[in-house]
Design a protein that fits this description.
By secondary structure, the chain is an all-alpha fold. Helices cover 78% and strands 0% of the residues. Helix 1 packs antiparallel against helix 3 and helix 3 packs antiparallel against helix 4. The structure holds fe (ii) ion (2 copies). The site of one fe (ii) ion has 5 residues, from helix 3.
Length: 167
């Protein structure tokens, strides 16, 4: 194995964090669906898929460097939300937490002169910039629309999606 035991354990911990995010987004998607907001709900289901992909990416790296995969217990996630705004605020907080976790991993890699892991982690550093930006944008959109006009948020997301994938 070309990474330290400490790095192996820390990467395995990050797998749990990503799977925790996956579950949290499923819960949020379900809550949003219960309000009849199908477009926004779909966005959170997609977000959940991405988190699972992140976990798999880390697992693949652990295997590639000859370290041992160990998937730990995933902490429980909240299913109780009062408003869409509250759920999206929780999402942004979660992304901020994950950003700090990734930064800590990068700091460890640099401290250990583990350039292979540092290079691997760079993708996650960049990804977190994107995730924070898009979640912050969504939160401001939801706040600007207000609860009475939440359907406008759905329209906006649909329009953005069709701009990205013109048919
Ligand atoms: Fe992630
Ligand atoms: Fe994320």
């Amino acid at each position: 194995m070309i990474i330290s035991k400490k790095m192996q354990d820390s990467l395995n911990e990050q797998v749990v964090h990503e799977l925790h995010s996956h579950n949290a987004y499923l819960a949020i998607a379900g809550f949003i669906d219960s309000l009849g907001l199908k477009v926004l709900s779909r966005r959170f289901f997609e977000q959940a898929d991405e988190e699972r992909t992140h976990a798999l990416k880390i697992i693949n790296f652990i295997m590639d460097v000859g370290a041992t995969v160990a998937v730990g217990a995933i902490p429980t996630t909240t299913n109780k939300f009062k408003t869409v705004e509250e759920a999206v605020e929780a999402s942004l907080k979660q992304e901020e937490r994950v950003t700090a976790q990734i930064n800590n991993l990068m700091a460890l890699a640099q401290k250990e002169k583990d350039y292979a892991t540092a290079s691997f982690l760079q993708w996650f550093i960049d990804e977190q910039v994107e995730e924070i930006a898009s979640m912050s944008d969504l939160l401001s959109l939801i706040r600007r629309a207000g609860p009475a006009n939440i359907l406008l948020v759905e329209d906006r997301i649909l329009r953005e999606e069709s701009d990205k994938h013109p048919t």
